[in-house]
Task: structure prediction
Amino acid sequence: MTIQPQATAENTLESGRFLHPFTDFAQYKQTGGRTYVGGDGVYIIDHQGNRLLDGMSGLWCTNLGYSQDSIKQAITAQLDRLPFYNSFFNCTTDITLRLADQLCEALPAGFEHVFFTNSGSEANDTNLRLVHRYFDLLGQPEKKHIIARTNAYHGSTIAGASLGGMKGMHEQMLGLPYVHHVEQPYTFAHLGSLSPEAVGQQAAQSLADKIDSIGADQVAAFIAEPIQGAGGVIIPPDNYWPLIVEICRERDVLIISDEVICGFGRTGQWWGCETFNFEPDLITFAKAVTNGYQPLGGVAISDKIAAILTTEGGEFAHGFTYSGHPVACAAGLATLELYQQSSVLSDVSSTIAPYWSQALAQLADHAIVGEVRTQGMLGALELVKESGTTDRIAPDAAAAVFCRNYAISHGLMIRQVGDGLILSPPLIIQTSEIDQLIMGLEQALDATAAAFGIAS
Ligand SMILES: Cc1ncc(COP(=O)(O)O)c(C=O)c1O
Result:
């Protein structure tokens, strides 16, 4: 791995006028940031020409990497043909309709309708509008409450951030009063005290208790990611999803599977709900639907919900100017074609994901690694002072922050969440590139151990 310079205020291109999302603006003035100017396969290139192996697929978006010419060509061809028309008031574009059809082919059975948005956040707002409308049409208008999970990420609009379980976001806003949070099935946090099954049982029970305390006749839906992504790649124990489904079905509570990260092959199958073998009522998608090349999100609507929405009549008073934007839909169609015509998904399940899982597992023996988790092409490492414990190395996640910064400045893009490191490399990554990623991670772990005085 090449040594890369640390970011400083001096070596960024920026004038300071751009306010970065999820950034400490005051700190940014001191430290500066990194600006990216190029992408090539599974690599990104910063403005100083450094190549970084992208262990995060952009922001869980570029599952097929940065060099997919067919998507780029579809975008420019659509710009030439019809750069924009809206989808309000019974109108739309041909390409929007084609993407809806093709997506339904890729969705689990029983999903024959989609509603497009520009992002995952807007898609989750749309979910709330849809479930409220559904129960209104069924004559159950009191069913308005929504239950989500601690540490979840469902976006950054008011609804998305309310649904999310991120303390730091809630501290800066007034959340929606009808959104509630229950436990996440975070097995590592209970290491040594509860078995994974007991954690799954306890987290599921917290949902049952919450629904029962509000009253099932008031609760519309439970929203969750099959695997919590931004919350730390929290992979639930095997008993969790079957229990959740049982609890929701018994109480007539809809299940929204937020697949903004887990969709499009990330967990090893098309959809995370397929990996965990459950049938949701609504599916949120975004990000990888266009391989990140255009902003697009949406909600896939199960036949049960669509049957009511499409027969009861009355306008659904919701939508966005750019819902079903033709250029974004052209990117989505080209992306779907790549999934359907290439062997990417079968390669992931037969070769790449098993290789990834074994390669990352080698790091479990490292002195500061307390747990390694993988599922499909997701991964997480928990950093600890002593293996076999959950004791952290330093307050304020300082060790994980150091490790992430070291990795980035040595050519490997990874992300830190609390005292953990998370990974989500492009699905098209080759085994030699996985080897390179693991080598970079190991070096970063060694450097972190040394910096915090732990022998590795
Ligand atoms: C699970 C999940 N849902 C929703 C969102 C929000 O998507 P967007 O940033 O496109 O609004 C994200 C973004 O990371 C996500 O991970």
